[in-house]
Amino acid sequence: MQKSSDSIFNITVLVAALGYFVDIYDLLLFNIVRVDSLKDLGLDKAMIKSAGEFIISIQMIGLLIGGIIWGVMGDKKGRLSVLFGSIILYSLANILNGFVQTTNQYALVRFVAGVGLAGELGAGITLVTELISKEKRGMSTSLVAGLGLTGAVAAYFISLNFSWRICYFIGGGLGFCLLLLRISVFESGMFNQVKLQQVARGNFFMFFNNRHRFKKYMLAILIGLPTWYVIGILIAFSNNFASELGISEEVLPKKSTMLAYVSISVADLLVGFVSQWLRSRKKALYIFYIFTAIAIIFYFTQHNGTAAGMYIICAALGFATGFWAIFVTMAAEQFGTNLRATAATTVPNMVRGALPLMLLLFNGLQNVTDFLTAGWITGIIIMVISCTAVYFTEETFGKDLNYVEA
Question: CATH number for the domain including 32?
C-alpha cells in the first residue's frame, strides 16, 4: 500500500484543488449569470425570481442524484473513475448550456450539469484524505477547498467581460483542460487494498441498515445545512432581500456571490489550521457557527442601509460559512474505506440537494408572514438543527482511516 504523504503540497492536492475550482466555477455560474441570462431569455423581474428558484432547485436535485451515483462508483470502481467521468459529463453539459433558448431547456441542462458536478468534490476529498497522513489531512482538504472555491470569483470576473453563453462555454473548456492534469494522479492505496478483500463496496443502503451508521450519516449531512441556506437563499436572492430591507441602491446577486466566495475561500484555508491548532473538528465548527449566527443577525437588521453595506455583510456571511472543507473531511473520516467515497460524495450533495427543501420552507413561511420574517425564521430553524447535529457528531480529528465497514 502507498505510504501516506506528510506534505500538503503535492500533485494530488493540486489537481483536486483545480478540479474543485472548475466545479465551483460551474456550480455557481448560474447564480452569477441568473439575472442576465433569464432577462436575455425574455423573462420579467417576477418571472426571473420564480424561474431562478426553479432552475437552481432542479440543479440541486441533479446534484443529489449524482452524489449517489458517483459515490457508489467511487467505492466500486475507484476514486479516479469518478474524477474522470464526472468532469466529462459536466463539461459537456456546460457547453450545451450555452445554446439553451427556454427556461425548461435551461433547467434540463442544469440538471445534467448537477449530476456531473456531484462527483468532483467527494472523490477529490476522499483521495486526499487517503493519500495524506492523518496529521496533515485536515490542512490538505482545507487547501483543496480554499483554492477551489476561488472558482466562483473567476466566474464573476469572466461574467463581466463575456456574455453568459460564453461563460458556460469557458466552463466546459476548463473542464476538458483539467482532464489532461488528471493523468498524473494515482489511485488511492487504501482503495486498492480493499479491492482485494471480500467486502461490500459502495453499497449505499449500508448507511440505512445499521442504526449507528445511519445516525453518523444523518448527522454528517445536517451539520452542513447553514452553508447552502446562506449561499442558496441569502446570497442568491440578496437583491430581493435588499429591496425588502429598504435599500434603495441596486444590489447585484453576482457581486454578492463573488464577495461571499472570496471570503469563503479565505475561511476554508483557515479552518483546517484552526482545527489543527485545536486538535478538533467540532470545536472549529462551533467557532464558525457562532460567526454565522452573528452575520445572519447583521443581515436582517440592516434596514434602510446601503448596497455597500449589503456586500460587506455578504462577505461576512461567506467567511462565517467557510467551514465546507472541515464538514466534507468529517464526512470522509466517519466511514470505512469501502464506503468512504460514497459518504464523502453523497453527504455534501445531500446538503446541496436540501436547498429545494429550504426554499419550500422559506416560501411556505411567506404564506403566513412577510418575506423578511420568513427568511430569518428559516435561518433559526437551520442553525438549531445544525448545532444539535454537531453536538451529537463524533470527533474525527486524527482518526485512522485504514479500516472497512462490516
Answer: 1.20.1250.20
Query: Residue 184: pLDDT band by 50, 70, 90 thresholds?
Result: low
Domain assignment of residue 160, yes or no: yes
pLDDT digits (tens, 9 = 90+) for 156-175: 999 999 999 999 999 999 98
Sequence-separated (6 or more) residues with CB below 8 Å from residue 191: 75, 78, 79, 130, 337, 341
- Residue 152 inside a domain? The answer is yes
> What domain count does the chain have?
1
Structural domain of residue 384, as residue ranges? 11-183+201-392
- Tens digits of residue pLDDT in 298-322: 999 999 999 999 999 999 999 999 9
Q: What is the 3-state secondary structure (H, E, C) of the chain?
A: CCCCECCCCCHHHHHHHHHHHHHHHHHHHHHHHHHHHHHHCCCCHHHHHHHHHHHHHHHHHHHHHHHHHHHHHHHHCCHHHHHHHHHHHHHHHHHHHCCCCCHHHHHHHHHHHHHHHCCHHHHHHHHHHHHECCCCHHHHHHHHHHHHCCHHHHHHHHHHHCCHHHHHHHHHHHHHHHHHHHCCCCCCHHHHHHHCCCCCCCCHHHHCCCHHHHHHHHHHHHCCHHHHHHHHHHHCCHHHHHHHCCCCCCCCHHHHHHHHHHHHHHHHHHHHHHHHHHCCHHHHHHHHHHHHHHHHHHHHCCCCCCHHHHHHHHHHHHHHCCCHHHHHHHHHHCCCCCCHHHHHHHHHHHHHHCHHHHHHHHHHHCCCCCHHHHHHHHHHHHHHHHHHHHHHCCCCCCCCCCCCCC
User: Which range is most confident: 108-112, 179-183, 201-205?
Assistant: 108-112
Residue 361 CB burial class (10 angstroms; 0-12, 13-18, ≥19): middle
**Structural contact between residues 151 and 25, judged by C-beta atoms closer than 8 angstroms:** yes
The answer as to whether 290 is a domain residue is: yes
**Is 192 inside any structural domain?**
no
Instruction: Give CA 100 to chain center in angstroms.
Output: 25
